[in-house]
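In the laboratory, one determines a bound structure by crystallizing the protein with its ligand and collecting diffraction data. In a computational setting the workflow is compressed into a single prediction: the sequence and the ligand go in, and a structural description comes out. We illustrate the idea with adenosine monophosphate.
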Amino acid sequence: MSKKAEPIRSVKGTRDLLPPDTVLWNHVEEVARTVFGTFGFGEIRPPVFEPTELFARAVGGETDIVSKEMYTFEDRDDSQISLRPEATASVCRAYIEHGMHSLPQPVKLYYMGPMFRRERPQKGRYRQFYQIGAEVLEALQPGQGGPKDIPKDAAIDAEVIEMVMTFFERLGLQGVQLDINSIGDKNCRRKYVETLRAELQRVKDKLGPDSQRRLETNPLRVLDSKLENEQPIIETLPRIGDHLCADCKAHYAALRQQLDLRRVKYRENWRLVRGLDYYMRTTFEITAQGLGAQNAVCGGGRYDGLVELLGGQPTKGIGFAIGEDRLILSLQEQMRDSASLPLATRLPAGQAGHSPLVYIAWMGEKAQATAIRAAQTLRAAGFSVEWPPVEQKFGKALGQADKLGAKFALILGDNEVSSGDWTLKTLADSSQQKLTEPQLLDFLRKL
Ligand code: AMP
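The predicted complex, in structure-token form:
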């Protein structure tokens, strides 16, 4: 006797998204498309793998993402390929590759799809996870740039943030908290980082091993520390807000004013530095409830200069990435807490799970032909229909309808077929009514 084959399991940190959860995933993505569309964004779908060099250059070789978490492999022609850990680099690459600088500026793009990072999996942190993100890119025209662009740049930043907040609001996401900061530009930040590093050197002995390592590689990341005993030390460190140059200060003030004009509520958080090298000036992060330690659902910021770093011409950029897995977790927590959530009521009827609206119970050869036609008509009208593939006694079929959670059973026997008056049973109260085919469609449409 042959040995039973071992079942193969999914790779650690990856998961299957299944119905009915996928209904919520689709709903979230649909709302994103609608809201982003109203802000003038078009969709881009970059590949999920790219030359490793793209991420090394854009995200930074020193970052955890590139140095430790990327899935990198040698292709058969010896080239180095990586699964994308994020998509901003890809969008910038595509912007250059397709000469988008010659389109009307700025170019506004959004994307959604899987990203890959080899992190330690836990609730809200996976090795394949999904992001919904958007980028605004603007190639500098001759004579453009410098301090006179500050009001325009700040307004664009504020509108991008407003768009994410509108999206979350449309989903009914609760407990949303927006944090903003300015991390300066490459000049004033460099000076600040040196000041910070010197100060950290002074208190080095009191820091844990992670912060001691970051002191060398990327001192800004020490500010991210969640370690209890490091908090009092961090509170005494120099703050970037006190070290911004005049232009960065003006930009940050204009951003806050623009957010106020849009009635977007925010909290200033001087410790918000973000993990990626390419950010400058505006950074922001959004947290939501019900997520425990991994409560950031969105991160973003400005990255003027990134396109140039990738071989394009001088270009400004601002964007964000929403962690879709976490967004969905938060919405699901909310739905558990409250049955009257706006989101639940906004899910299209009949789609909250995958229960059919109508189960067709049929008996007899003629009834089969009628059932096939009825199923086609109902499905074409957008109603979900289920029915037994072979003849089944009415009792058994109705039992199956109940099991599947159908709302109605359409009963088609010899009498119904010859009279054209079909029997529709409401399963919740067992009431029945006689309806012709057009009357049935009418009835369902009015639900
Ligand atoms: P980042 O690209 O690191 O700025 O992340 C943007 C957002 O993506 C975060 O706020 C998270 O919501 C989400 N995210 C990042 N890494 C993961 C992960 N490993 N698993 C799930 N979501 C993630």
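The pocket of adenosine monophosphate is lined by residues 86, 117, 119, 124-126, 129, 131, 275, 296-299, 321, 323, 325-326 (CB under 6 Å). Keep in mind that any predicted model is a hypothesis to be tested, not a measurement.
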